[in-house]
Known about the structure:
2 copies of one chain form a homodimer.
Chain A: H1 11-26, E1 31-32, H2 43-59, E2 62-65, H3 68-76, E3 80-82, E4 85-87, H4 92-100, E5 104-107, E6 116-119, E7 122-125, E8 133-136, E9 140-143, H5 146-158, H6 180-191, H7 203-217, H8 219-224, E10 229-233, E11 239-241, H9 242-253, E12 257-261, E13 263-265, H10 274-295, E14 301-304, E15 306-310, E16 317-318, H11 322-338, E17 342-343, H12 356-372, E18 376-377, E19 383-384, E20 389-391, H13 392-402, H14 405-410, H15 416-419, H16 421-426, H17 437-442, H18 458-463, H19 469-483, H20 491-506
Parallel strand pairs in A: 2-11, 7-18, 8-20, 10-12, 12-14, 13-15, 14-17
Antiparallel strand pairs in A: 1-7, 2-4, 3-4, 5-6, 8-9, 15-16, 19-20
Helix pairs in contact in A: 2-10, 4-10, 5-6, 6-7, 6-20, 7-9, 9-10, 10-11, 11-12, 12-13, 13-19
Amino acid sequence: MPEQTGRRRGGGREARRAARTRETATALPYITRRVPPYEVLSEEGLTTIEDNADAILAEVGIEIVEFPEALGIFESNGADVQGTRVRFPRGMCREIIQATAPSRYTQHARNPARSVEIGDPNMVMVPAYGSPFVRNLEDGRRYATIDDFRNLVKLAYASPSMHHSGGTLCEPVDLPVNKRHFDMVYSHIKYSDKPFMGSVTNPSRAQDSVDMVKILFGEEFIQEHTVITSLANANSPLSWDHAMLGSAKIYAENNQAVLIAPFILAGAMGPVTTAGVAAQTLAEAMAGMAFTQMVRPGAPVIFGSFASSMSMQSGAPTFGTPEPALMMFTVAALARRLGVPCRLGGNLTASKIPDAQAAYESATTFIPTLLSGANFVLHSAGWLEGGLTMGYEKFILDADMAGMAPSLVAGVDLSENGQAMDAILTTGPGQHYLGTEHTLANFETAFWRADTSDSNSFEQWELEGSKDAAARAHERWRQMLSDYEPPPLDDDVDHRLTQWIEERKSSFPDSDVA
Amino acid sequence: MPEQTGRRRGGGREARRAARTRETATALPYITRRVPPYEVLSEEGLTTIEDNADAILAEVGIEIVEFPEALGIFESNGADVQGTRVRFPRGMCREIIQATAPSRYTQHARNPARSVEIGDPNMVMVPAYGSPFVRNLEDGRRYATIDDFRNLVKLAYASPSMHHSGGTLCEPVDLPVNKRHFDMVYSHIKYSDKPFMGSVTNPSRAQDSVDMVKILFGEEFIQEHTVITSLANANSPLSWDHAMLGSAKIYAENNQAVLIAPFILAGAMGPVTTAGVAAQTLAEAMAGMAFTQMVRPGAPVIFGSFASSMSMQSGAPTFGTPEPALMMFTVAALARRLGVPCRLGGNLTASKIPDAQAAYESATTFIPTLLSGANFVLHSAGWLEGGLTMGYEKFILDADMAGMAPSLVAGVDLSENGQAMDAILTTGPGQHYLGTEHTLANFETAFWRADTSDSNSFEQWELEGSKDAAARAHERWRQMLSDYEPPPLDDDVDHRLTQWIEERKSSFPDSDVA
């Protein structure tokens, strides 16, 4: 007689309970990772890269461009300042960061149900950032406007997989350069109730962003709570400028979060090797992160990295290639060792259109992003053409695919229901599982599925017009915009905000000088 | 003064040497993985699944359909046989497999430079298998013919990322069902010199495949060497039939390799949970693998798994979803613990065409495949429509993307050249790396790039006709077929093969009964 085991009872009820738990888990306004991150390097390898970053900071140091105040701050905190060059004794930046930078922080949304926890073991998906162009199947490619910006806020708001409204969803080039930020930040506030990013193109615009959230949340609230996360890119290699570091200073002073991100096109702004780019990234990021802690100890800060490979034929940046994936795994591990949240990856591509190239390259970036354990995933949706274009259809397709993230990082369910032994032992050889109690109990939550994917038969697909994924995505964003309903915003707050913006806008002339 | 380190010298020469080493490494006819596999489950979790597989084999067992001889073989090796049901005492299958199944084997190609090593730490990329339809941009979707089959052998031969010619690249439905295998195996031999797969639709066709390689390699050679790897799918759940297991027996008897692969559409042929499907897969595969070792101890065998999720709306299989990715990580770990090579994954999709859906789903399968550490990756190129269609353009795009695999699994180079510290310390802040000695020395091998990806500027892309990836892939396969030159085949061997086939074909009537 075959051996008997006696551990399985009540599969049906247990199954339904487990299914409900899963549903609740995925209803959180961010993702909680339960699988281990993928570690590409050993502890020894990571230590080598950390040593190299320390050597870079000590020997070459960081150039601080047109920001004498920052030089003073660095010097008074123990750095060696010669002219505009700041060198750091080995270990100094790491010690400062580890002493006060939080490993996790809450970014509050105006709708508390949408506040996100940024840091391990969580993951927050954020739309693409910074494109001057937009593209959709109707208009092709054209310069972005504030109308596009509002559309994209609405699409991010309506996309369950996007936890964040993002920042510069596109550059509204129909507005003056020095006043766009008012309309961008206001659009995030008005058309969404998800958390968002502020302006970093000039410290005064960072201050405007802070002043606007003071009106929205109240001045006292924001001194205690973080309601903005903003992006500051280094001028790689090894340089920080006044616009970015000055903006970082404003945010840090106000207890708002800054994402400190070296942006390295390997071969141009850094060496062509992964270990080299990782060491340079760590050096540049540690200098920036330490600066925020010097400005205000405890201010939330994210260790960011953007690193792409390059076409050795044309010098063009390339995406979805293996080297940036290795870089992501490495940087995420460095961030965990430093003890700060990590931003990297997204759905990146060099393709001009939402075709197979775009999807291959995006997924080849996005899956390593998920397995790296990144906490803040900028560029999760919409990115085309190396970031020059925000694609409407690409946004929908990416956001749809990003919906898989919670299931992937939830890992393998080893509960009794997950093991499904009752089902297997009672369904005989050659029988099917379609009608079993276990299948029916788990049916609704068992498998994630992309809404824009067509898994029907060829015949059904043909009957429905032989559409490709981009055509389905096109229909979807049109429908989403037509179905859009704004989240409620207090009339008084809205009035005060718009009035304040009007006053600020009329207090200085329009300019298109950045 | 900043601290000085003294470990870096001769970056240029070292760099060039490292670059040459990398080139040689990627010129091997298979991939060697240097990164650790991604482990989604702890040892405890894997043990739970192994225990469950043992329980399934002991309590329910496996149904052996229309193959009394196999029942006798199982019984004489210690299994409990009641009618057509075979139950296995706990641990029996594992012990038999671990006693004699090789952890790695060489599959010899007729060109020795193309022989592959199947097993850790290697990875072998193999085209898609089994589609009755083909699709290309010229003809759309239609039934496949032997001409298509030959074209696909030629394309696999001409694709550097494909290490293997595969098996049923498409079903040549213009030929009688009971004689197709002659033309398929002959096409692999004639139009390629890469390793290939044999027929499994009937034990007599497996024997024909073996007889053909006896002519090609010589009878003595094949008794000592493995020259065929063939695919045997279980009839999930928990059933093996005469066609597949009988074919496996023929191959094992002749020291040829069999890929033992449960094919589970979760929710139909197995439960809807990953842990459940993994236990069922392990049970079915262990029964099949143990059978090959009973037939001939030491015969090469691969632990395979094909598991897809399902649309809960339509019941259609879905691909590129997170649940099969978790399944892949789990099964690869189970295979490592069992000590046999592992097959899973590929570039799978439910899309009917090579659009963004196809690419998202394929890459979302393929990247986890690579990180799982799978050794034999069937369906690496061409798969469309859940396997019903082999796409010419999809083949090119997949094969191109598969070209990233060696760089990804090579991991991070931590050599002196990889650390690039000379380059970083001598290139100052704000300077670029385009002309540095380190960049020039590593330029050619630094970054992998897909040939069918367009990373040029928008303007350049527009000038070149605004093509999508599928259009570029179309041009590419047309060019590859037009450039194709067959590898030399000994005239006498060719003559004996064709004569033998003619004799065999005329010895029994055509039939389209499978």
